[in-house]
Amino acid sequence: MQVRPARPRDLKLCAALDHSYTTDRVWQMEVRDDGGVVTSVFREAYLPREIQVDYPRQNASLLAGWKRRDGFMVAEEEGVVYGYIALTAQDEHGIAWVGDLVVDRARRRQGVGTMLLHAATQWGRENDLCRLVAEVPTKNYPAIRFCQSRGLAFCGYNDRHWLNSDIALFFGESL
Q1: CA angle, 147 as apex, 152 and 141 as ends, to 5°?
Q2: Which of 33, 96, 138, 141 could bond to 23 as cystine, CB 3.0-4.6 Å?
Q3: Predicted confidence (pLDDT) per residue in 130-169, tens digit
Q4: pLDDT (tens digit per residue) in 69-113
Q5: What is the number of structural domains in the chain?
Q6: Domain at 129, CATH number
Q7: CA separation for the pair 124, 4 (Å, rounded)
Q8: Which alpha helices (H) appear in the chain, and where do they start and end?
Q9: Beta-carbon neighbour count of residue 74 at 10 Å?
Q10: Residue pair 109/31 in contact by the 8 Å Cβ criterion
């Protein structure tokens, strides 16, 4: 398995990967306003049953987003693409932003995501960035656990980040 910069022909292969995920937990947000003091609290919540969730970006918006990225790498073996990571350099903030990190369902939990995340860290360093930040939907508990287990710490959120109005959680680490 190797991680390399994506080529134009890889886009179709990346789009064909199974982007969906299954979860039995989410991060639930509660906002409180106590006399002018506003707090946001996140807690892990179990769902009544396991659900399958589609990726928040689909087809045309996914392809359009890739074209705006500064870095795009794929994990492949013998010509077969098993995952990808899409990065944007936010130079003014010193951030390597992970917009998409996807591993095909059949290859998850085999180190592919970790390889892609390491490649993103290296890419950030090579571009003189000082922080890596990944965006994750509150519904994607497997991705939340992946970020946490790789040393990324919760560092913020946006309560209407995607077109479907889902909340994005941000996890980051210093480079």
Answers
A1: 140
A2: 141
A3: 999 999 999 999 999 999 999 999 999 998 777 777 899 9
A4: 899 999 999 999 999 999 999 999 999 999 899 999 999 999 999
A5: 1
A6: 3.40.630.30
A7: 15
A8: 10-16, 59-67, 112-126, 141-149
A9: 22
A10: no
